[in-house]
Amino acid sequence: MAAIHELLKQVQDPALRAELEKEIRILSTNKKFGLVFEEHKPECTPLYDVPVRRGATVARNLPGKLDETYNVIKIEGETAVCCKQADKTVVEEIPVDDLIAVARFGDPIYPYLQPIDSVCNAPDSDLWHALIEADNYHALQLLEYLYAGKVDCIYIDPPYNTGAKDWKYNNDYVDSADNYRHSKWLSMMKKRLELAKKLLNPADSVLIVTIDEKEYLHLGCLLEEMFPEANMQMISSVINPKGTARTNEFSRVDEYIFFVMVGNYKLIRTGKDMLTQDVSKDTSVRWRGFPRTGRKGLRPVNPGSWYPIYFNKHDDSFHSVGDAVYEGQEPPPEPEGTYAIWPPIRNGDEYSWAMIPTRFRNLKEIGAIRFGRSTKGKGCSISYLTDNQLKQIKDGTIIVTGRDANGALEVAYATDSKTTAPKTQWNLTSHEAGAYGTNILGAIIPGRRFSFPKSIYAVEDALRFFIKEKPDARIVDFFAGSGTTLHAVNLLNAEDGGHRRCILVTNNEVSADEATALKKKGYRPGDPEWEALGIARYVTWPRTVCSIEGHDVNGAPLRGNYLGSDIPMADGFPANCEYFKLGFLEKDRVSLGMQFREILPLLWLKSGAKGKRPEIEGEEIPDMLILPENGFAVLTEETMFSVFAKRLAETAGVDTVFFVTNSETAFRDMSENVDTQNTYQLYRDYLENFMIGARRALG
Known about the structure:
Largest sheet: 10 strands, mixed
Low-confidence stretches: none
Shape: elongated
CATH architecture of the largest domain: 3-Layer(aba) Sandwich
CATH superfamily of the largest domain: Vaccinia Virus protein VP39
Oligomer: single chain
Structural class: alpha/beta
Distance between the termini: 18 Å
CATH topology of the largest domain: Rossmann fold
CATH class of the largest domain: Alpha Beta
């Protein structure tokens, strides 16, 4: 508001100025409905691998805030001459070793992926996942370039903002004493969700976000504001039945999960209603009761279904069925030795049976009428199988296991065929975070600490409701933590033969306690000793490797089977994964084609991450790459197009082509003369994406 008042001072007309001031006062007192927070709090990311050069934006490499940034004016030996960005008149000389390059929110960045490691447990499979070590904001900018509108499911477990130093803003932990902690959290989430939304397939996708009571109200408002076109539900999930005791408060046993369902999504019914234990294990078939109920069951509505059913007097067993008796007709005489049971009368109203006599006889003949326990002088209860259930017997969903003494079918649901709608309260033993999160992670990486990992089965269940029928789904988790989402995707693939791909993003932060211990030893972020204890390298990647290969970090086979299946943990999974670290390139070197090796992993990912990631051998960059095993091709020398096009036409399996050319006309001409689904212009397509993204971020 200060800027507005400064502008008002420039209004020469006193009357007009007074009127404007009056209207501004009115506007400033109006409360916005929904969330009110500082949406553009500054945010910076340290770039430990980027050298400090003249013109760079830098900050002091000290644990804590990155709010105070500088521009490097020049470098004299081991000293950088810098001016403060907040006040250009302040010039300081700072040792280069005490500085780190930083990227401010909204700065254009040109990312690449540096391969760090890989695990290959299925060399004959083209299924490759990816783990990206990065600040997730910049990783999301990269993912927008790679997969805009192509992601089926995003599952995230963001920091809960408990005030217990569980997350950082500008390289500093946010604690409960920070008056801006909620604004910082919402600002951080909004920036990332804006990018995440661009990844989701607008025709059919889902965003899944877990949270606890500290921010769930704020998060719900934010999601409603950002996804007005989506259908959103929040469920409560019991993760700790023992409860977490809190002074003078209720003991917390649950957390919340928001499902933001986009486009023509399909919520898939499974054998779990999520409130009770696995209903698919209950194979009993519910027979329908014979008397009709409700206003539609009244005799006048169903005149042909009012008739007697006869039972034998000596043992109350079924004898026969009479014909329909209509209004005004006399009831027929009872067969000798029997008595009649008629449809019920309730509150003076006559009701009817569920069907006409002919239908009853037909169902009785095939065993679809069942008689229950008899009552002296009152016959016995009657139930029947519906038309839908008879259809299920035909298609094998319901199986016939025999007949009872009266000839009625004995039936049961086939294994895993029974489905039910999931409820909004989840209370399953398998979702307990201690037994199936902490204990499973502890068995894989014993001795390595990670707070509150999710139950693998809780994550798998949340995913299954939306991707069970998408065997080739693409899943992204940009708050990857210990890597539970990728573990759950591999388990789901193993259970149903799916080919789903997962991309994890996590930073390499160390815990607050570890940071304190490392600082005492003289280490700083970016030092190998510090980075080795970061979450990506110390927890997420080891878990990924070990769960895929079936052993712990010491090489011992994992023990036991995955819950509810016959899949031994020691068998691992037939899957592969690449581990990358996000880095940044210089725009001019990219535009001159000097960074092709660095760009190549991005082209592999953009083409679907099929097959083992290609690498270039030797010093020279080839004129062309045609890689059917990876599904893409690259023409780096425009003058070789005719040869390239001929070879491409003779090669099956390539559906994406990248052309290195500065001419849009040449790009269009070449695209029109190749028979592929997707074509891209390098390096213009890459550079423009991140320049435009930066402008959008700045508004």
